[in-house]
Amino acid sequence: MTSTALVLRSDGIGGLLTVVPALRALRRHGLRVVLACPPELSELAALTGAVDRILPAYGLAPLSWPGPGEEDADHPPLLPDLGVNLHGRGPRSHRVLLNLRYRGEGRRRLWAYANPDVPWIRGPWWDPGENEVLRWCRLLQWHGVPADPEDSALPTPLIASPAPGAVVIHPGAGGTSLRWPADRFAEVARTLTDEGLPVVISGSSRERPMALLVATRAVLPPQIVLAGRTSLRELCALVAGARLVISGDAAMTRLAAAYRTPSVLVSTADGRHPILHEVGGSVPLDAAVPASSVVNAAVRALGAGVR
């Protein structure tokens, strides 16, 4: 009988994208994969081709097995015999998996990074400066499972892009010092529109007010604001068919990379993107990055491409 691995990665889009190579490595190793993640990520999980089912999970709240609606099934899913912590260094995330029980039965094995608070768990030591994709591949390799960090590409969803060939601007949410301000995103959107490029503004329902503010300050019609109007699958199709993604959220640049779409990230330092600015101390992000620098980076990215 095929063994089942319960994998914990219970945060957002960006976190899930960092574990795609590890999930695929587990599947190639012959394991059935149950992913504990927020259920709203189920469409993205399906696109990885490596997840058999989702177990709803939010943050580090206790997990419930076999899952909502399955407790009274005639043949509920068997409790996984392996837990894989692709969420964090522990010990809390370790214990979320260790504490999983169903009808008195507990999980047998756990693959996770070593942590002195759970000394009986064997694993490699955590490197806080390590790239996240490499980190989770290294964990599996320590357990004898080869993992390819480059195996991160996603298939284009079988759904039409809401705006094929557009420049996608994804400002993210407002009200945080780590976000580039709406005025700067608006200036970039206006400049690119004046150059004849189609521009749309993406985001979640929660981020729609910020997206509408950017469009208003750029004097662009509200119809270009797709924030809150796309499913996750439609967002993937949008990014897959985009000319360029400009974002204040690293999750969107990770999604762009999965589709080999050029991207510009206005965020903290990370050498994988054309323009990145690390701001230390009390210097605010908006004082460090002028809109003209992002426009110039966008032009370079459009010229070079990565497809």
TrEMBL record:
The keyword Ligase does not apply. GO terms for biological process: lipopolysaccharide core region biosynthetic process. Coiled coil: none annotated. GO terms for molecular function: ADP-heptose-lipopolysaccharide heptosyltransferase activity. Keywords: Glycosyltransferase, Transferase. Pfam families: Glyco_transf_9 (PF01075). GO terms for cellular component: cytosol. It comes from the Bacteria. This is Glycosyltransferase family 9 protein. It comes from Microbispora bryophytorum. The lineage of its organism: Bacteria, Bacillati, Actinomycetota, Actinomycetes, Streptosporangiales.
